[in-house]
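SEQUENCE AND FOLD
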Amino acid sequence: MNPPTLFSPEATAAALPYPELADAIAALLRDPAVKVPARTVLPLPAGGVLIAMPATDARVAITKLISFVADNAARGLPGIQGDVIVFDARDGRRLALLDGPTVTARRTAAVSLLAAQRLAPRTDGPLLIVGAGVQGRAHLEAFASGLGVTQVRVASRSAASADALVAHARHLGLEASRVDDADAALADCPLVVSATPAQAASLHATPRDDAFIAAVGAFTPAMLEWAPDVCRHIAARGTLAVDTRDADHEAGDLLQAGLDVTAVPTLADWLDRPRPNGPVFFKSCGWAGWDLAAARLVAAEFIRTDA
């Protein structure tokens, strides 16, 4: 029996191209064999959390085991660390060990890409990215490769981080610039990604009527990126969507706006609906099913070989 294949961060990224991963996520949402129990979150003594996220379909099973420590940047460490273990669901063999932070970054951006493909009134940009960390970079790459975006604006509390992401965008052949006022930039950008630490509202201005917003920074009820009145405005004038029903108790932006998240359609609900009118606010909180979709892409060669 061969040992499981160990994927470095670079190999994990290469195995998960964004357009193909978005397609894999759409396919997973249509698969009735997918089972995703609630994730387990264990508080750590120093303030971080250890998160266990299992999922399975008829052929592949995974567990993502990661830690999240919000203040790790001050230690020179990434906020998210861990792995995704991929199993053959039929015989229990370990097939692969994927780099957890890379899977998290790429599947989150691919979910936003799929939502934009299905929901965005316009997909040509310019794209505004608020937050120049790992998720900001992943969303930049996903929207460039999956939507064909060519113009990007980057806002961040750290000018150095914003400049670094602008340089990366230019390296990819995009027209990119730093903006110091994210609220003002909303007027020029129909595509918006907020990927901030979500410790307080970073965006307060009203977005365009043709805006698509992917809000990915907040994933607990106590976190938020958008001012509550902005969320209420979009709820009244446009469309709200969430990634899964787990957002009912996790979507801080919407919960703190006093909105009934249980009545908000999920991404799966939108797969077969016509594109909505008006501004769209897509709230993404995370789900082990997205990690399973990534694992299915990687595991296809193992499963096919042994079928």
